[in-house]
Amino acid sequence: MAVLLWLFSIYMIINRYGEFKNWNFSMILFVVALFSISWSLASMICIHLSSLVTEVRNGNYTNYMLKPTSSLFFYCASQFPIRTIGDFLSSLILLVWSITIIPIDFSVMDILFLTISVIGGIATISGSFIINGSMAFLNIDTSMSFVNIFSKLRDMSRFPLFIYPEYLQGFLLSIVPYGLVAYYPISSIIFEKKRTILLYFTPCIGFGYLALSIILWKYMEKKYEATGS
């Protein structure tokens, strides 16, 4: 509901004042939809990591460490938040809507690039969940910090990044690369006539971000082991 209200406000602004530097409502809707698809799929896998601190504090996390598989993998696989199905379906509806109204003829390479971008987006957003969850090993309740930080970054990434100062653009493209989830691929498809082969490898940055988050997780997990909890 909040997303729909937000989109309605964007529609009214554009309808009254015109496009944002050649970005119309259908393009912004496409960014929102593509980002939401990646977010909902990543949430199916990792969103419950934000409540890991409860397992750490009561000592139940030790049970996950005794499993033959990775404790991170087992913890993520042990739960499935049902509500994420609704998030995914609503995101899918937004995606279909945006595709039907956006004035673009997608090529096979465009579709392939967007598909890879969604996969890279899942990796990026999952990495953020893992970073957030890893703080639980320091006995820090990160449930609110996740809402206040990563969710705000998510909301910022729904807009074309050019409306932000350069330092924020850089942050959303390199430090927490949410800008590569939807804005950058869509911007490239719409406005870049000549694309280099390197463009199609930008989703790999999401996997690099995920790998770094897993390294951080393992480092923080050792602190939990050291306490003998």
UniProtKB/TrEMBL annotation:
Pfam families associated with the record: ABC2_membrane_6
InterPro entries assigned: ABC-2_transporter-like
Keywords of the record: Membrane, Transmembrane, Transmembrane helix
Transmembrane regions listed in the UniProt entry: 28-52, 88-104, 111-131, 167-186, 198-220
Claim: Methyltransferase is one of the keywords in the record: no
PANTHER family associated with the record: INTEGRAL MEMBRANE TRANSPORT PROTEIN, SLR0610 PROTEIN-RELATED
Protein's recorded name: ABC transporter permease
Annotated organism of origin: Bacillus thuringiensis
